[in-house]
Specification:
Blueprint (H helix, E strand, L loop, with lengths): L3 H9 L2 H27 L6 H25 L6 H30 L3 H24 L8
Length: 143
């Protein structure tokens, strides 16, 4: 019979599970920053949700890079190269987010907070594949 501890250890070795755990943490931080800015700072600013989006991504990039590199992919090597690739993937995600968010808010009529939750699902998938195959990719046999 496998203990709960053994099952937890097995799950922690799965890159997808670590990605989701770190991603959930980073998403909570980023969404919290987005919501705080939207509700307090940019509440009455036309298209203020886009400013909230950009600032929340800046915080998210800083937090995510450290956590993904250290805890998810556990890589070593050139930090600058990894960071530049990481930012490229994030820029792709933010461009997608910036295109979809106004579409969902202005055309579909969703509240910005709900629209951002919908877009997060899409950008999470883009991020996983981008980071695993580009940001932190290593040739076979290298960390």
């Amino acid at each position: 019979m496998t203990s709960l501890r053994d099952r937890a250890l097995a799950l922690s070795r799965d890159t997808r599970i670590r990605f989701l755990a770190v991603g959930a943490t980073n998403t909570a931080v980023g969404y919290g920053v987005f919501a705080g800015l939207q509700l307090v700072v940019f509440r009455d600013v036309p298209f203020g949700y886009l400013a909230s989006l950009v600032l929340s991504y800046a915080v998210g990039i800083a937090v995510a890079f450290v956590l993904y590199r250290r805890f998810v992919w556990q890589v070593r090597g050139n930090v600058l190269v990894d960071l530049l690739r990481f930012i490229a993937v994030y820029l792709t995600a933010i461009a997608l987010n910036a295109a979809l968010l106004p579409l969902l808010v202005e055309i579909v009529g969703l509240h910005p907070l709900l629209a951002q939750l919908v877009v997060l699902v899409i950008t999470t998938l883009v991020s996983f594949f981008g980071h695993s195959r580009f940001s932190f990719a290593r040739p076979p046999g290298r960390e």
